[in-house]
């Protein structure tokens, strides 16, 4: 008789309503360690159609306790949008801001680029920012900087990332690392990578397919996979 596959989790995660409540409370009560920072700005980076905007709207829905509500966008352009998450009290917002960007492009000098200026970013589809660019900030204040970068990637297409896009992702990661900006990775569309998690998302860390995808992405970005998530 064939032995049943090992379904023990390869990453420890605490699930449940109590842990969810704990996380939501921590986010709602978050305050920056610096009084000069009004909002901690979280920059979402990733190729087009990986689900960055969908993730923003999911976050918005969680904190509004209802679905299909567009997030509140400030500083909106065709290439960049800062979302303020509504707070518990009326007309307030959390001390966190999600910054959505245009999708990363494979071409050199196209799409998102990082300049040599501290925490300065450019979203032009044709050329990177220079000191001569209108609106260029040579020495942005701590409040205007990006405080965390999240790489958003489609789990189902990780193995299909082109060499050109891999090169751009690594260049961006190296530059962000040199700026000492914290970085995280968010994998979307895990159900497309492994349909077995559709019935219960808690199976995601028992999926060898998803583990392989996570390892591929970790190698692509030269980062490590946490053993636990408490």
UniProtKB/TrEMBL annotation:
One matching Pfam family is: MMR_HSR1
What's the domain of life for this entry? Eukaryota
MF term (GO), any: GTP binding
Q: Which GO terms describe its biological process?
A: immune response
Give every G domain span: 41-188
**InterPro entries (alphabetical):** GTP-bd, P-loop_NTPase
Name of the protein in its database record: Interferon-induced protein 44-like
Q: Which organism is it from?
A: Takifugu flavidus (sansaifugu)
Q: Source organism lineage? A: Eukaryota, Metazoa, Chordata, Craniata, Vertebrata
């Amino acid at each position: 008789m064939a032995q049943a596959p090992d379904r023990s989790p390869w990453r420890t995660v605490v699930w449940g309503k109590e842990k969810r409540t704990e996380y939501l409370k921590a986010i709602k009560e978050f305050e920056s360690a610096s009084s000069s920072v009004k909002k901690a700005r979280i920059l979402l980076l990733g190729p087009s159609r990986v689900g960055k905007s969908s993730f923003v709207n999911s976050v918005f829905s969680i904190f509004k306790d209802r679905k299909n509500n567009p997030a509140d966008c400030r500083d909106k352009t065709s290439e960049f949008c800062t979302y303020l998450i509504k707070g518990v009290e009326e007309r307030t917002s959390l001390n966190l801001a999600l910054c959505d960007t245009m999708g990363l492009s494979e071409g050199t000098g196209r799409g998102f680029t990082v300049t040599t200026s501290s925490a300065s970013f450019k979203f032009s589809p044709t050329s990177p920012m220079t000191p001569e660019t209108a609106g260029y900030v040579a020495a942005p204040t701590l409040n205007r900087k990006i405080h965390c970068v999240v790489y958003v990637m489609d789990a189902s297409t990780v193995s299909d990332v082109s060499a050109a896009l891999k090169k751009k992702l690594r260049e961006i990661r190296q530059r962000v690392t040199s700026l000492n900006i914290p970085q995280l990775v968010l994998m979307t569309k895990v159900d497309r990578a492994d349909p077995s998690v559709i019935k219960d998302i808690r199976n995601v860390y028992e999926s060898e397919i998803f583990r392989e995808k996570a390892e591929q992405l970790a190698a692509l970005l030269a980062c490590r996979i946490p053993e636990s998530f408490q």
